[in-house]
Design goal:
The protein is an alpha/beta fold and 408 residues long. Helices cover 33% and strands 23% of the residues. A hairpin with a 5-residue loop joins β2 and β3. The longest helix is centred in the middle third of the chain and has 14 residues. The model has no long low-confidence stretch (mean pLDDT 97).
Protein backbone atom coordinates (compact mmCIF):
# COMPACT_ATOMS: atom_id res chain seq x y z
CA UNK A 1 0.00 0.00 0.00
CA UNK A 2 1.52 3.31 -1.08
CA UNK A 3 0.95 6.07 1.50
CA UNK A 4 1.57 9.77 0.77
CA UNK A 5 4.55 11.50 2.38
CA UNK A 6 4.54 12.49 6.03
CA UNK A 7 2.88 15.81 6.81
CA UNK A 8 5.08 16.33 9.87
CA UNK A 9 8.29 15.63 7.98
CA UNK A 10 7.25 17.71 4.96
CA UNK A 11 6.50 20.73 7.16
CA UNK A 12 9.82 20.47 8.99
CA UNK A 13 11.66 19.95 5.72
CA UNK A 14 10.10 23.08 4.23
CA UNK A 15 11.34 25.15 7.20
CA UNK A 16 14.80 23.59 7.06
CA UNK A 17 15.05 24.09 3.30
CA UNK A 18 14.06 27.75 3.61
CA UNK A 19 16.66 28.32 6.34
CA UNK A 20 19.51 26.61 4.44
CA UNK A 21 21.46 28.90 2.11
CA UNK A 22 21.08 27.51 -1.41
CA UNK A 23 18.79 25.04 -3.13
CA UNK A 24 17.15 22.05 -1.41
CA UNK A 25 15.16 19.34 -3.16
CA UNK A 26 12.41 17.57 -1.23
CA UNK A 27 11.70 14.14 -2.70
CA UNK A 28 8.19 12.63 -2.37
CA UNK A 29 6.74 15.46 -0.26
CA UNK A 30 3.12 15.43 0.82
CA UNK A 31 0.86 17.59 -1.34
CA UNK A 32 -2.15 18.54 0.79
CA UNK A 33 -3.94 21.64 2.07
CA UNK A 34 -1.58 21.93 5.03
CA UNK A 35 1.67 21.56 3.12
CA UNK A 36 0.50 23.78 0.26
CA UNK A 37 -0.39 26.45 2.84
CA UNK A 38 3.13 26.14 4.25
CA UNK A 39 4.69 26.41 0.78
CA UNK A 40 2.51 29.41 -0.07
CA UNK A 41 3.50 31.01 3.25
CA UNK A 42 7.15 30.67 2.29
CA UNK A 43 6.43 32.30 -1.07
CA UNK A 44 4.68 35.19 0.69
CA UNK A 45 7.80 35.66 2.80
CA UNK A 46 9.83 35.85 -0.39
CA UNK A 47 11.34 32.38 -0.71
CA UNK A 48 11.48 30.64 -4.09
CA UNK A 49 9.37 27.47 -3.95
CA UNK A 50 8.82 25.32 -7.01
CA UNK A 51 6.10 22.77 -6.24
CA UNK A 52 5.04 22.18 -9.84
CA UNK A 53 6.04 18.51 -9.63
CA UNK A 54 4.30 16.14 -7.24
CA UNK A 55 7.38 14.00 -6.64
CA UNK A 56 9.93 16.76 -6.00
CA UNK A 57 9.74 20.29 -4.65
CA UNK A 58 12.67 22.72 -4.93
CA UNK A 59 13.21 25.47 -2.36
CA UNK A 60 15.66 28.36 -2.58
CA UNK A 61 16.83 28.92 0.98
CA UNK A 62 18.23 32.00 2.68
CA UNK A 63 20.11 31.84 5.97
CA UNK A 64 19.36 35.45 6.91
CA UNK A 65 15.61 35.12 7.29
CA UNK A 66 12.77 35.98 4.88
CA UNK A 67 13.85 37.83 1.71
CA UNK A 68 10.89 40.21 2.01
CA UNK A 69 10.68 42.90 4.66
CA UNK A 70 6.88 42.89 4.65
CA UNK A 71 4.39 40.07 4.11
CA UNK A 72 0.90 38.85 4.97
CA UNK A 73 0.67 35.11 5.50
CA UNK A 74 -2.49 33.01 5.67
CA UNK A 75 -1.82 29.77 7.58
CA UNK A 76 -5.28 28.36 6.72
CA UNK A 77 -6.00 25.30 8.93
CA UNK A 78 -2.37 24.24 9.34
CA UNK A 79 -1.04 24.14 12.90
CA UNK A 80 2.53 23.51 11.72
CA UNK A 81 2.26 26.45 9.33
CA UNK A 82 0.76 28.66 12.04
CA UNK A 83 3.43 27.76 14.58
CA UNK A 84 6.59 27.25 12.50
CA UNK A 85 6.43 30.19 10.08
CA UNK A 86 6.29 32.95 12.74
CA UNK A 87 9.48 31.47 14.23
CA UNK A 88 11.12 31.58 10.81
CA UNK A 89 9.91 35.15 10.19
CA UNK A 90 11.41 36.24 13.52
CA UNK A 91 14.89 35.53 12.12
CA UNK A 92 14.44 38.20 9.45
CA UNK A 93 14.15 41.96 9.51
CA UNK A 94 10.74 43.36 8.79
CA UNK A 95 7.04 43.34 9.61
CA UNK A 96 4.93 40.24 9.06
CA UNK A 97 1.23 39.65 9.59
CA UNK A 98 -0.11 36.16 10.26
CA UNK A 99 -3.71 34.98 10.16
CA UNK A 100 -5.45 31.61 9.96
CA UNK A 101 -8.84 29.95 9.51
CA UNK A 102 -11.53 30.29 12.15
CA UNK A 103 -10.69 26.75 13.26
CA UNK A 104 -7.00 27.56 13.66
CA UNK A 105 -7.75 30.93 15.30
CA UNK A 106 -9.31 28.98 18.19
CA UNK A 107 -6.16 26.95 18.81
CA UNK A 108 -3.64 28.23 21.37
CA UNK A 109 -0.36 29.94 20.51
CA UNK A 110 0.74 31.21 23.94
CA UNK A 111 3.72 28.87 24.52
CA UNK A 112 5.29 30.10 21.26
CA UNK A 113 4.27 33.75 21.36
CA UNK A 114 5.36 34.04 25.00
CA UNK A 115 8.72 32.48 24.12
CA UNK A 116 9.28 34.75 21.11
CA UNK A 117 8.34 37.79 23.19
CA UNK A 118 10.82 36.73 25.88
CA UNK A 119 13.48 36.55 23.14
CA UNK A 120 12.78 40.16 22.15
CA UNK A 121 10.40 39.66 19.22
CA UNK A 122 7.58 42.24 19.17
CA UNK A 123 4.13 40.70 18.66
CA UNK A 124 0.88 42.66 18.46
CA UNK A 125 -2.30 40.59 18.67
CA UNK A 126 -5.03 41.81 16.34
CA UNK A 127 -7.81 39.87 18.04
CA UNK A 128 -7.72 37.52 21.03
CA UNK A 129 -4.40 37.50 22.89
CA UNK A 130 -2.09 34.59 22.10
CA UNK A 131 -4.11 33.57 19.05
CA UNK A 132 -4.10 34.40 15.37
CA UNK A 133 -4.20 36.99 13.85
CA UNK A 134 -1.12 38.91 14.95
CA UNK A 135 1.61 41.19 13.61
CA UNK A 136 5.26 40.33 14.21
CA UNK A 137 8.11 42.87 14.03
CA UNK A 138 11.44 41.12 13.46
CA UNK A 139 15.04 42.18 13.84
CA UNK A 140 16.66 38.79 14.17
CA UNK A 141 16.69 36.84 17.43
CA UNK A 142 19.42 37.24 20.03
CA UNK A 143 18.87 33.85 21.68
CA UNK A 144 19.47 32.88 25.27
CA UNK A 145 17.64 30.59 27.69
CA UNK A 146 13.96 29.67 27.92
CA UNK A 147 11.66 27.54 30.03
CA UNK A 148 8.83 25.99 28.00
CA UNK A 149 5.64 24.24 29.10
CA UNK A 150 5.07 21.71 26.30
CA UNK A 151 1.96 20.05 27.74
CA UNK A 152 -0.35 21.37 25.00
CA UNK A 153 1.68 20.49 21.92
CA UNK A 154 5.22 19.49 21.01
CA UNK A 155 4.97 21.80 17.98
CA UNK A 156 5.94 24.80 20.11
CA UNK A 157 9.19 23.13 21.11
CA UNK A 158 9.82 22.11 17.50
CA UNK A 159 9.33 25.70 16.29
CA UNK A 160 11.86 26.97 18.83
CA UNK A 161 14.36 24.20 18.06
CA UNK A 162 14.17 24.95 14.33
CA UNK A 163 14.74 28.62 15.16
CA UNK A 164 17.60 28.00 17.60
CA UNK A 165 20.62 27.70 15.26
CA UNK A 166 19.50 30.89 13.47
CA UNK A 167 19.76 33.00 16.64
CA UNK A 168 22.84 35.13 17.36
CA UNK A 169 23.73 33.40 20.64
CA UNK A 170 22.01 30.04 20.30
CA UNK A 171 19.18 28.77 22.46
CA UNK A 172 18.88 26.66 25.59
CA UNK A 173 15.38 25.34 26.26
CA UNK A 174 14.32 23.68 29.52
CA UNK A 175 11.12 21.77 28.83
CA UNK A 176 8.40 20.61 31.20
CA UNK A 177 5.53 18.16 30.67
CA UNK A 178 6.33 17.34 27.04
CA UNK A 179 3.63 15.53 25.04
CA UNK A 180 4.12 13.70 21.73
CA UNK A 181 7.80 13.12 22.48
CA UNK A 182 8.49 11.20 19.23
CA UNK A 183 7.63 14.29 17.17
CA UNK A 184 10.49 16.15 18.84
CA UNK A 185 12.69 13.18 17.96
CA UNK A 186 11.74 13.75 14.31
CA UNK A 187 12.75 17.40 14.62
CA UNK A 188 16.12 16.67 16.20
CA UNK A 189 16.92 13.92 13.67
CA UNK A 190 16.06 16.15 10.73
CA UNK A 191 18.04 19.09 12.09
CA UNK A 192 21.04 16.79 12.35
CA UNK A 193 20.49 15.66 8.75
CA UNK A 194 20.66 19.31 7.73
CA UNK A 195 24.00 19.74 9.54
CA UNK A 196 22.96 21.01 12.98
CA UNK A 197 24.32 19.76 16.29
CA UNK A 198 21.62 19.48 18.95
CA UNK A 199 22.61 18.65 22.52
CA UNK A 200 19.88 16.89 24.49
CA UNK A 201 20.31 16.23 28.21
CA UNK A 202 17.14 14.97 29.84
CA UNK A 203 14.53 17.69 29.28
CA UNK A 204 17.06 20.34 28.24
CA UNK A 205 17.82 21.15 24.61
CA UNK A 206 20.90 23.21 23.76
CA UNK A 207 21.62 24.49 20.24
CA UNK A 208 24.46 26.88 19.37
CA UNK A 209 24.43 29.21 16.32
CA UNK A 210 25.04 27.15 13.18
CA UNK A 211 24.23 27.04 9.47
CA UNK A 212 21.75 24.64 7.91
CA UNK A 213 23.07 22.78 4.84
CA UNK A 214 20.96 22.49 1.66
CA UNK A 215 20.54 18.99 0.26
CA UNK A 216 18.23 16.48 -1.40
CA UNK A 217 15.94 15.10 1.31
CA UNK A 218 13.52 12.18 0.91
CA UNK A 219 10.20 12.27 2.79
CA UNK A 220 9.03 8.95 4.26
CA UNK A 221 5.35 7.85 4.11
CA UNK A 222 3.01 9.34 6.70
CA UNK A 223 2.66 6.98 9.69
CA UNK A 224 -0.55 8.63 10.93
CA UNK A 225 -2.16 8.16 7.49
CA UNK A 226 -0.90 4.58 7.41
CA UNK A 227 -2.69 3.90 10.71
CA UNK A 228 -6.07 3.75 8.94
CA UNK A 229 -4.91 0.99 6.62
CA UNK A 230 -3.17 -0.89 9.42
CA UNK A 231 -6.35 -0.67 11.52
CA UNK A 232 -8.51 -1.78 8.57
CA UNK A 233 -6.40 -4.89 8.06
CA UNK A 234 -6.55 -5.68 11.78
CA UNK A 235 -10.31 -5.16 11.87
CA UNK A 236 -11.27 -6.96 8.68
CA UNK A 237 -8.89 -9.90 8.95
CA UNK A 238 -6.87 -8.82 5.94
CA UNK A 239 -3.24 -7.90 5.43
CA UNK A 240 -1.42 -4.73 4.40
CA UNK A 241 2.23 -3.82 3.87
CA UNK A 242 3.41 -0.20 3.79
CA UNK A 243 6.84 0.02 2.14
CA UNK A 244 9.27 2.74 3.18
CA UNK A 245 7.90 2.84 6.72
CA UNK A 246 9.96 0.31 8.63
CA UNK A 247 12.35 -0.12 11.53
CA UNK A 248 14.36 2.99 10.61
CA UNK A 249 11.33 5.30 10.40
CA UNK A 250 11.52 8.70 12.08
CA UNK A 251 7.84 8.86 12.99
CA UNK A 252 6.70 7.75 16.41
CA UNK A 253 3.16 7.13 15.19
CA UNK A 254 4.40 3.86 13.71
CA UNK A 255 4.12 2.62 17.31
CA UNK A 256 0.38 2.38 16.63
CA UNK A 257 1.03 -1.05 15.15
CA UNK A 258 2.38 -2.13 18.55
CA UNK A 259 -1.03 -1.28 20.03
CA UNK A 260 -2.69 -3.36 17.32
CA UNK A 261 -0.31 -6.21 18.11
CA UNK A 262 -1.21 -6.05 21.82
CA UNK A 263 -4.87 -6.20 20.78
CA UNK A 264 -4.29 -9.39 18.77
CA UNK A 265 -3.16 -8.37 15.27
CA UNK A 266 -0.06 -9.89 13.70
CA UNK A 267 2.69 -7.33 13.02
CA UNK A 268 6.02 -7.53 11.22
CA UNK A 269 8.42 -4.56 11.02
CA UNK A 270 11.50 -4.81 8.81
CA UNK A 271 13.90 -2.18 7.46
CA UNK A 272 11.89 -2.18 4.22
CA UNK A 273 8.39 -1.71 5.64
CA UNK A 274 5.65 -2.75 8.04
CA UNK A 275 3.01 -5.47 7.63
CA UNK A 276 -0.17 -5.92 9.68
CA UNK A 277 -2.42 -8.97 9.42
CA UNK A 278 -5.77 -9.19 11.17
CA UNK A 279 -6.66 -11.22 14.21
CA UNK A 280 -9.35 -11.21 16.94
CA UNK A 281 -9.15 -7.88 18.79
CA UNK A 282 -8.95 -8.22 22.57
CA UNK A 283 -9.33 -4.70 24.00
CA UNK A 284 -7.26 -3.40 26.90
CA UNK A 285 -5.82 -0.16 28.31
CA UNK A 286 -3.42 1.89 26.18
CA UNK A 287 -1.46 5.04 26.98
CA UNK A 288 -1.39 7.05 23.75
CA UNK A 289 0.19 10.27 25.04
CA UNK A 290 3.05 10.00 22.54
CA UNK A 291 0.96 8.83 19.56
CA UNK A 292 -2.20 10.83 20.19
CA UNK A 293 -2.92 11.53 16.50
CA UNK A 294 -3.80 7.83 16.20
CA UNK A 295 -6.18 7.90 19.16
CA UNK A 296 -9.26 8.34 16.92
CA UNK A 297 -8.16 5.35 14.82
CA UNK A 298 -8.10 3.10 17.86
CA UNK A 299 -11.36 4.58 19.21
CA UNK A 300 -13.13 3.85 15.92
CA UNK A 301 -12.26 0.13 15.90
CA UNK A 302 -12.60 -0.38 19.67
CA UNK A 303 -16.31 -1.41 19.61
CA UNK A 304 -15.30 -4.53 17.67
CA UNK A 305 -12.91 -5.76 20.38
CA UNK A 306 -13.90 -8.57 22.71
CA UNK A 307 -13.47 -6.45 25.86
CA UNK A 308 -13.56 -2.73 26.72
CA UNK A 309 -10.78 -0.53 25.33
CA UNK A 310 -9.54 2.36 27.46
CA UNK A 311 -7.29 5.04 25.98
CA UNK A 312 -5.52 7.17 28.59
CA UNK A 313 -3.30 10.27 28.90
CA UNK A 314 -4.69 11.98 25.81
CA UNK A 315 -5.84 15.36 27.17
CA UNK A 316 -4.00 17.16 24.36
CA UNK A 317 -6.41 15.57 21.83
CA UNK A 318 -9.02 17.98 23.18
CA UNK A 319 -6.95 20.86 21.74
CA UNK A 320 -6.54 19.67 18.16
CA UNK A 321 -8.65 20.62 15.11
CA UNK A 322 -11.57 19.77 17.38
CA UNK A 323 -12.01 18.14 20.78
CA UNK A 324 -11.15 14.73 19.35
CA UNK A 325 -11.90 12.86 22.54
CA UNK A 326 -15.47 14.15 22.68
CA UNK A 327 -15.85 13.89 18.90
CA UNK A 328 -15.05 10.19 19.07
CA UNK A 329 -17.33 9.69 22.07
CA UNK A 330 -20.25 11.49 20.44
CA UNK A 331 -19.97 9.62 17.15
CA UNK A 332 -19.66 6.25 18.85
CA UNK A 333 -22.74 6.98 20.97
CA UNK A 334 -24.70 7.87 17.83
CA UNK A 335 -23.67 4.43 16.56
CA UNK A 336 -25.20 2.86 19.68
CA UNK A 337 -21.93 2.20 21.55
CA UNK A 338 -21.50 2.74 25.28
CA UNK A 339 -18.68 5.19 25.96
CA UNK A 340 -17.29 6.72 29.15
CA UNK A 341 -14.96 9.72 29.20
CA UNK A 342 -12.85 11.73 31.63
CA UNK A 343 -10.52 14.70 31.39
CA UNK A 344 -7.80 12.74 29.58
CA UNK A 345 -9.30 9.32 28.83
CA UNK A 346 -12.00 7.50 26.92
CA UNK A 347 -13.32 3.97 27.49
CA UNK A 348 -15.23 2.21 24.71
CA UNK A 349 -17.31 -0.87 25.35
CA UNK A 350 -17.87 -3.72 22.87
CA UNK A 351 -21.03 -3.55 20.81
CA UNK A 352 -22.61 -3.79 17.39
CA UNK A 353 -22.43 -0.32 15.83
CA UNK A 354 -25.43 0.81 13.81
CA UNK A 355 -25.41 3.06 10.78
CA UNK A 356 -25.21 6.77 11.53
CA UNK A 357 -23.89 10.06 10.18
CA UNK A 358 -20.42 10.87 11.48
CA UNK A 359 -19.93 14.45 12.59
CA UNK A 360 -16.38 15.27 11.49
CA UNK A 361 -16.06 18.79 12.96
CA UNK A 362 -14.00 19.50 9.81
CA UNK A 363 -11.31 17.25 11.32
CA UNK A 364 -9.51 15.01 8.83
CA UNK A 365 -8.54 12.45 11.47
CA UNK A 366 -12.13 11.93 12.62
CA UNK A 367 -13.27 11.36 9.03
CA UNK A 368 -10.49 8.90 8.20
CA UNK A 369 -10.71 7.00 11.48
CA UNK A 370 -14.45 6.37 11.20
CA UNK A 371 -14.02 5.30 7.58
CA UNK A 372 -12.28 2.27 9.09
CA UNK A 373 -15.19 1.55 11.43
CA UNK A 374 -17.57 1.72 8.45
CA UNK A 375 -16.04 -1.53 7.13
CA UNK A 376 -17.86 -3.46 9.86
CA UNK A 377 -21.08 -1.44 10.20
CA UNK A 378 -24.12 -2.96 8.53
CA UNK A 379 -25.36 -0.25 6.19
CA UNK A 380 -22.10 1.68 6.50
CA UNK A 381 -21.61 5.23 7.76
CA UNK A 382 -22.14 8.62 6.17
CA UNK A 383 -20.05 11.75 6.84
CA UNK A 384 -21.15 15.36 7.14
CA UNK A 385 -17.89 16.65 5.60
CA UNK A 386 -15.96 13.90 3.82
CA UNK A 387 -13.85 16.47 1.97
CA UNK A 388 -12.06 17.56 5.16
CA UNK A 389 -9.48 14.82 4.47
CA UNK A 390 -7.83 17.15 1.94
CA UNK A 391 -5.97 18.69 4.88
CA UNK A 392 -3.47 15.79 4.88
CA UNK A 393 -4.64 13.05 2.45
CA UNK A 394 -6.68 14.47 -0.46
CA UNK A 395 -7.01 11.11 -2.21
CA UNK A 396 -7.92 9.18 0.94
CA UNK A 397 -11.45 8.09 0.05
CA UNK A 398 -10.47 6.62 -3.31
CA UNK A 399 -7.34 4.96 -1.90
CA UNK A 400 -9.25 3.52 1.06
CA UNK A 401 -12.12 2.27 -1.11
CA UNK A 402 -9.65 0.50 -3.41
CA UNK A 403 -7.92 -1.06 -0.42
CA UNK A 404 -11.21 -2.11 1.21
CA UNK A 405 -12.30 -3.82 -2.02
CA UNK A 406 -9.19 -5.99 -1.85
CA UNK A 407 -9.98 -6.97 1.74
CA UNK A 408 -13.12 -8.67 0.43
Amino acid sequence: MLIPGSKSITARALFLAAAAEGETRLVQPLRSDDTEAFAEGLRRLGYAVDSSRDDEWVIGGRAGGPPRAEAEVSCRDGATTARFLPALAATGRGSYRFDASEQMRRRPMAPLTDALTALGVKIDFLGEADHHPFALSANGVEGGALTLDASISSQFLTALLLLAPLTRKGLRIDVSDLVSVPYVGITVAMMRSFGIEVDVAGSTYDVRPQAYRPQAYRIEPDASSASYFFAAAALAGGEVTVPGLGSGALQGDLAFVEVLEEMGAHVSITPEGTTVRGGALRGGTYNMRDISDTMPTLAAIAPFAEAPTKIVDVYNTRLKECDRLEACAGNLRRMGITVDTGRDWIEIHPGTPRTAEVETFRDHRIAMAFSVAALRVDGGLTFDDPGCVKKTFPDFHRAFADFAAKLG
